[in-house]
Amino acid sequence: MPSFKLSYFPIKGLSEVSRMLFVLGGEAFEDDRVPFEQWPTVKDCQTCLLFIGMSIRKILFDKVINSFRFPSSTDLGTPFGQLPVLYIDGQPLPQSFTIALHINTHKTSLIAKVIHKQIRFAGRTPFESAWVDALADEWKDYYVAMRPVAAGYMEKGHVEEQLRKDENGCTGHFVGPTLTWVDLLVAEHVTAFEGIIPGFFDGFPALKAIQKAVQEEPRLQKYLANRPETYF
Asked: What family does the entry list (predicted)?
């Protein structure tokens, strides 16, 4: 069995879904929470401009074009100077929302997908699995529209319209009658966003139902009760 080490900051952020998937699957992993003050000494490449507003997309592109090499098990740190990174038997897998991997016959784009294909929270059939991936891609579109709202730069009406599309008549789960990793993605986002704008999702009962189903999942109770309290 491979060994897993998930490195991220001491917040929920981009890694919480992956942590929850490990717990749901009963898969042992090292939950490496890197203190912010230690981050400059941890990263493996010079991307300090990330913290003063330079486009992440541009830095990723420049890094890939100019100096990319496939990481080996002897590599240390973070290949693109960012977290999270999932180490699988010591080999680093970076970029939570930009990883492109081929697993079986289709491409994936999240660290969480690498895990859920093994732990099987991706639907009961190939078609359900395809819909899980499709909804995750749709959720990314919503997430892009939501970010200015969290910062207070636009009215929430546009995001509400997108949310109603994303609800899609679900009743506790997005795809089929069982838990999938996209349910975790949605539930964690609802919880985090309501910490910024309390009551924002009160008009979206389907999304609240997904949040409730995840929070009441028996296999997650111990983890949810004991995970560190963070704002997001």
From this structure: Belongs to the GST superfamily. Sigma family.
In angstroms, how far apart are the furthest CA atoms of the chain? 50
Q: How many domains does the chain have?
A: 2
Please indicate, yes or no, if residue 166 is contained in any of the structural domains. yes
Beta strands 106-108 and 101-103 are antiparallel
- pLDDT (tens digit per residue) in 198-225: 888 888 888 889 999 999 999 999 999 9
* Token pair in block for residue 119: 């732990």
Which residues sit opposite 27 in a β-bridge?
Answer: none
Q: Are residues 34 and 87 in the same domain?
A: yes
Q: Which domain holds residue 23?
A: 4-119
Least confident of 43-47, 119-123, 177-181, 187-191: 43-47
pLDDT at 99: 29
Q: How far are the Cα atoms of 94, 155, 187, 191 from residue 230, in angstroms, in the given order?
A: 23, 26, 16, 11
